[in-house]
Write a structure and sequence with these properties.
heterodimer, A: about 70 residues, mainly beta, Ubiquitin-like (UB roll), globular, B: about 230 residues, alpha/beta, Rossmann fold, about 35% helix
Amino acid sequence: MNLNINGRPGTFAEGSSLAEVLESLSIDPHSTLVSVNQEIVVSEDFGTTELQEDDDLDFFSFVGGG
Amino acid sequence: MTPCDPYMSSNPPGLAELISGKGIFIAGAGGLGSNAASMLVRAGANRLTIIDHDIVEPSNLNRQFYFRHQVGRPKVEALRENLLEINPDISVCALREELTFQNAKEMIRTHPDVVLECFDRPESKATIASYCLKNLPSIPLVTVSGIAGCGPLSKIRLYSPRPDMFVIGDLQSEAGRNTGTLSSRITFAAAMQAHIAILLLAGRLDDIREDLHQTLETSERHLLGKNKNL
């Protein structure tokens, strides 16, 4: 399955969930703002969000300090 | 506020009047929130809601807008007191609560015109960002990521990865035991946050566009592409 991650192409297993894609990219799900096709997905839904071919995923990982 | 208010008279003409009455929600009263709030009040902001569950600790005074006699007191109460010292005629709603995804709807019920994300922990930053962008899509959110340590100021930029989301920082400098957080760098980011909020409230989008244009020089150009408003 081909996905666009922050504007760059990537290939993942068919039927991957959002949680699985995050894990395979070593992205911390708790500190990352996630959208699929520009729609925000909240962290509790990462495991149940199934991705489709050509989905646009945008990840923005926050770092601490303030 | 009167047009000839002497305390506002050095601000750019007409600006304080544009900001006056606008609702500003500040999530976190630490280095970012306490300093951004003081700058916004000096610019004419008079309707603020500030949420934070912490108390003032000695280690906060290297960068946060508090004083030694306030150590041990709830931050939101101490900040409200300090802001009223700048302008006693403002309204500051001080919420001593931890903002979570679950209570965000109740806490952000004051219909703000802009939200400033001023938390310390990255998990809290992501939580409020996902809540606001999902549930309050037309209210601009000004967040911060990557301002710890004592690295160069020139790497702290303005990004806008999606409509109504602005990010200030170098996106990398993370707070840790060996990094620390420095007054000058934190306050610089807080000033950028306050400034973007002022420009948004005053409708000065051309100025924001120019700040974003500077970001084109960085390697994170993809974080500019999704904001079709600018």
